């Protein structure tokens, strides 16, 4: 047994002591490598046709907003320094059909929303989702074959091109195809260029995994039906969560086809993909911290099992550290408020 005396006199001869830089808050600040800035954040917002704002049960702090409330929210976000919003429509089920016809309506809700936002807050960048799932009665991201057993790729891409051009016409800054059809980035780029929208950027949901973390969002926009009503699952177009190489390959295809942003979705469970894509590509990289990531922090904090603010901040920092330039997050507004209050 060692004598207590010996322990007291024990000294390690270390060439480096990393704890030296952790001793005080100011030293830790000097050594900090990664920061989440307001400028990095995109706020996803849900728009509905009419009625008062409605809370989304599983996503505290998120509301379905009517057009007027949406514009007001955008004005507040812009004032806080948030650079962009991503708009998702929650449509009345009566507007949905098998083919998602409403997506081609030049007066559809999301296009009116874009025009209203760009008129009120021109400096705020607006991102729109290019996918058919908000518009289809079956909730799939594309057009089904006659048997309802397959989402037809090329027919769907043609519809997406039409949607993207309508969105560009409405004044959107960034179109964001979230459907995972093959070849859609190149086709959308060509359609936008052909229509004269050479400066409309494309944010590709390039590594979008078939994830259980989307559950609360599907409730929020009323598209939860998809997996239930058809035998077909979204895993026939979204990526297998088990695959890393495939994610990089698909994203590199999107880069080659002209994507201005690549995206990894979800974020927190896919930090390895974010890092690998950051190293593989020079294109601006986005990560989507999805509804389930948001909901689980809220739920655990409500139970008293996690510290809400610390877990929230750590979750975002981890996404930045993994290599994301931009984060789509439902926490965007409160992070911007916190940064403002700190000065
Ligand atoms: N196309 C947008 C989404 O699917 C959002 C998913 C989520 O937040 O869970």
From TrEMBL:
> Has UniProt tagged this entry with the keyword Methyltransferase?
no
Where in the sequence is the active site?
208 (schiff-base intermediate with substrate), 265 (schiff-base intermediate with substrate)
Q: In which pathway does it act?
A: Porphyrin-containing compound metabolism; protoporphyrin-IX biosynthesis; coproporphyrinogen-III from 5-aminolevulinate: step 1/4
Entry's InterPro entries?
ALAD, ALAD_AS, Aldolase_TIM
The entry's cellular-component GO terms read:
cytosol
Which keywords appear in this protein's UniProt record, sorted alphabetically? Answer: Heme biosynthesis, Lyase, Porphyrin biosynthesis
Supply the EC number(s).
Answer: 4.2.1.24
- Entry annotated with the keyword Coiled coil: no
**What Gene Ontology terms for biological process does this UniProt record contain?**
protoporphyrinogen IX biosynthetic process
Q: Which reaction does it catalyse?
A: 2 5-aminolevulinate = porphobilinogen + 2 H2O + H(+)
Q: Which Pfam families match?
A: ALAD
The record, for SMART domains, names: ALAD
Q: What family does this belong to? A: Belongs to the ALAD family.
Tell me how this protein assembles: Homooctamer.
Tell me the protein's name.
Delta-aminolevulinic acid dehydratase
């Amino acid at each position: 047994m060692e004598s207590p005396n010996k322990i007291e006199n024990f000294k390690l001869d270390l060439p480096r002591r990393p704890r030296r830089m952790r001793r005080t808050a100011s030293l830790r600040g000097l050594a900090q490598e990664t920061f989440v800035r307001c400028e990095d954040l995109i706020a996803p917002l849900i728009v509905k046709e009419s009625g008062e704002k409605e809370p989304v049960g599983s996503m505290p702090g998120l509301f379905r907003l009517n057009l007027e409330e949406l514009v007001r929210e955008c004005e507040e976000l812009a004032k806080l320094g948030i650079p962009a919003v991503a708009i998702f429509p929650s449509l009345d089920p009566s507007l949905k059909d098998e083919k998602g016809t409403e997506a081609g309506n030049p007066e559809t809700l999301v296009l009116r929303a874009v025009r209203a936002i760009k008129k009120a807050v021109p400096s705020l960048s607006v991102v729109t989702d290019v996918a058919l799932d908000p518009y289809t009665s079956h909730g799939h991201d594309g057009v089904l074959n006659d048997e309802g057993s397959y989402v037809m790729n090329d027919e769907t891409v043609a519809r997406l091109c039409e949607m993207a051009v309508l969105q560009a016409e409405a004044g959107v800054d960034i179109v964001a195809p979230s459907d995972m059809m093959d070849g859609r980035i190149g086709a959308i780029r060509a359609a936008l260029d052909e229509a004269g929208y050479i400066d409309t950027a494309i944010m590709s949901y390039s590594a979008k995994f078939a994830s259980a973390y989307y559950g609360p969002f599907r409730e929020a926009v009323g598209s939860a039906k998809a997996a239930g009503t058809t035998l077909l699952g979204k895993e026939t177009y979204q990526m297998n969560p088990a695959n890393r190489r495939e994610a990089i390959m698909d994203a590199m295809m999107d880069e080659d086809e002209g994507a201005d942003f690549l995206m990894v979705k979800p974020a927190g469970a896919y930090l390895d993909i974010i890092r690998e894509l950051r190293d593989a590509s020079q294109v601006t990289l986005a990560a989507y911290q999805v509804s389930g990531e948001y909901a689980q922090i809220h739920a655990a904090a409500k139970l008293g099992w996690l510290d809400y603010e610390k877990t929230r901040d750590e979750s975002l920092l981890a996404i930045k550290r993994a290599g994301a330039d931009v984060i789509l997050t439902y926490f965007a507004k409160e992070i911007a408020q916190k940064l403002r209050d700190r000065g």
